[in-house]
């Protein structure tokens, strides 16, 4: 008998929290009145258990629920169903953490490359890394390719598609990936520094597979995928079928009642994300500073045999904040700055160089001064 | 130039709503500062547009945003990305409606069977319909099959797996579907009344396809799928590849910042759900009565050439409430009562018959009295 623990924040008055916690444990396991269950094994080995209730302030409680590992079938979709299926429909419930016992955790291989694999690919053993986004969608392929080349000439490690770029008539997938991949390779020939184009992969599973094959055939090594948009189970399939890609996970469609620290810091990694893009504090999105720190720490923390995932803060990042952000996140981080480079328009190459110099030079002055 | 309209409820003070609405329109389209865009076509034909802002009470505004149809690429995942991708990450945003122009709507075939197809399958041209759930998970296959048979002998139209039943060691998919399908067919031979077993299909896309094939080979006609659990794009693929199934859509994992009326009443139908299970007012979940009415109305309403989908209220339904609920929802409805039948234990057959008699007899007495 093995149990996993799912943790929720539940809004409740003191006299109703026990009932709410117990209702959640039943809803997430047998989903029927206990009076309807005659089977003793089910009562003892399948019904979810409230394992702890702690006040969490502001009329909320932190509730640990034990769920039988056997109920997950060791599968991605069913694991999600057990830990946050029906109870996602309750406005008073927020899903904040999950602890999986070793044999269950071992069913999910996690990142195939992780931080170490990305560092090896980029030939960047220690420094913080850079990425940027080619945008906006609507530009013709030649213009997207020109942006790719400029960014790579400027020294950016990973040049990704904006996540809104799919297979639109103005930049069809096939034509775009060919042109952008070629553009980055040309720049690499000039600079001699590794750089990688990461196309955005989306679509229904069948389309996704076709696009992944095409990208692989073109020599693409890094891809951008939004796991909640394509669905976590489809993401797990993709990673399994195309383990050679480094996966950058995008947060699109991931808003809801799963805590950002959990979804970006743990769940995406569990299902195979090598790097997780999340919205940085002080940008266009309002995650608190401490959530960002916790998220980055969770992505990198020891967790069974799962490789650490690389945190990628993003969303309205400013070149001027690079030093502050690297002080905050440390070197096992990839910066993602897009729009704030593009505003330079004709001076894009110079601004890109400035970005790369800032990130790669971070901390060096101090070292020199100390020496 | 065609535009779709996505509608959001945005929490904002009066002096910040215009900025928030405009930020949303940019986030959901070009996702960068307008100052970074030099291309006039992008500025005029791709950048999202705030089309209307109306106060909605309680510090909220109802905001219509026009998004270029071209940006969706006519694909399920990218449509979701455009209408509720990054903005899902904003706690102050709730996604409440979408209006698609005819040519875009025509890219999504919707229900293959819909209400009319389900009625034909069940040989129930006018009356309200019945369904129930085999549960709890953890029971051995023989017991699940026995429950299936009892329900079908009692006259229930559709006997579905509980959505927590996947491919666990205690009831492996293959063995379970064979046994349950056979059990229902045996009951049908006895009663002479059509009844259908609906297995729960879940898994990563590759697993899902294998299970769907097996179910089809066994003669299954109706399946249960949770679109938000497997992912809406995977659901769209499944419906496309297995159009012969009647799809009951389950709400698991669908909680978040998409309004229930929109997700269950419209989006599930758009992607192919023939019937939508939703949590009824006054049950274990707290949807307001008016949301339930709006949801059922939306599922059945004329919408391009999409067939109407069947509303299936569920979640802590009581036999005693059947008349009230049928008055409320009308005859184009399928009741779903599970646990409240199972509490009868040894008297399950009798209680099931009572359920079926109540639903099928609803309104008849009145007719007789008037005659």
TrEMBL record, chains A, B:
Signal peptide location: none
Q: Which InterPro entries match?
A: RuBisCO, RuBisCO_lsu_C, RuBisCO_lsu_C_sf, RuBisCO_lsu_N_sf
- Domain of life according to the entry: Bacteria
Q: Which CDD domains match?
A: RLP_RrRLP
One Pfam family linked to the record: RuBisCO_large
Q: Name one GO biological process term.
A: carbon fixation
Ribulose bisphosphate carboxylase large subunit C-terminal domain segment(s): 114-339
Any one GO MF term held by the record is:
ribulose-bisphosphate carboxylase activity
* Database matches in PANTHER family: RIBULOSE BISPHOSPHATE CARBOXYLASE, RIBULOSE BISPHOSPHATE CARBOXYLASE LARGE CHAIN
The molecule here is called Ribulose-bisphosphate carboxylase
Annotated source species: Vulcanimicrobium alpinum
Source lineage = Bacteria, Bacillati, Vulcanimicrobiota, Vulcanimicrobiia, Vulcanimicrobiales
């Amino acid at each position: 008998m093995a149990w996993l623990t799912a943790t929720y924040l539940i809004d409740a008055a003191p006299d109703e929290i026990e009932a709410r916690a117990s209702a959640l444990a039943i809803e997430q396991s047998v989903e029927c009145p206990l009076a309807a269950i005659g089977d003793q094994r089910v009562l003892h080995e399948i019904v979810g258990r409230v394992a702890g209730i702690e006040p969490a302030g502001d009329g909320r409680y932190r509730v640990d629920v034990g769920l039988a590992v056997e109920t997950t079938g060791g599968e991605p979709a069913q694991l999600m169903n057990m830990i946050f299926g029906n109870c996602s429909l309750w406005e008073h419930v927020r899903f904040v953490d999950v602890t999986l016992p070793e044999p269950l955790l071992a069913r999910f291989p996690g990142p195939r490359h992780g931080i170490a694999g990305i560092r090896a690919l980029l030939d960047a053993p220690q420094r913080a890394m850079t990425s940027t986004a080619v945008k906006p969608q609507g530009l013709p392929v030649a213009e997207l390719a020109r942006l790719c080349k400029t960014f790579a000439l400027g020294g950016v490690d990973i040049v990704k598609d904006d996540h809104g770029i799919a297979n639109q008539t103005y930049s069809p997938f096939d034509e775009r990936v060919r042109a952008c991949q070629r553009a980055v390779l040309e720049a690499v020939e000039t600079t001699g520094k590794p750089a990688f184009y990461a196309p955005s992969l989306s679509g229904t599973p069948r389309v996704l597979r076709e696009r992944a094959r095409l990208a692989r055939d073109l020599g693409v090594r890094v891809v951008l995928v939004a796991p909640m948009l394509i669905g976590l189970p489809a993401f797990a399939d993709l990673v399994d079928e195309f383990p050679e890609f480094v996966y950058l996970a995008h947060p699109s469609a991931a808003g809801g009642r799963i805590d950002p620290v959990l979804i970006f810091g743990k769940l995406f990694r569990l299902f195979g994300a090598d790097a997780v893009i999340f919205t940085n504090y002080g940008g266009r999105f309002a995650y608190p500073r401490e959530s960002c720190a916790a998220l980055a720490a969770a992505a990198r923390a020891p967790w069974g045999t799962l490789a650490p995932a690389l945190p990628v803060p993003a969303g309205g990042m400013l070149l001027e904040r690079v030093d502050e952000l690297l002080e905050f996140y440390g070197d096992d981080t990839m910066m993602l700055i897009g729009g704030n480079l593009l505003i330079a328009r004709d001076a894009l190459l110079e601004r890109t160089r400035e970005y790369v110099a800032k990130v790669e030079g971070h901390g060096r002055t101090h070292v020199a001064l100390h020496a």
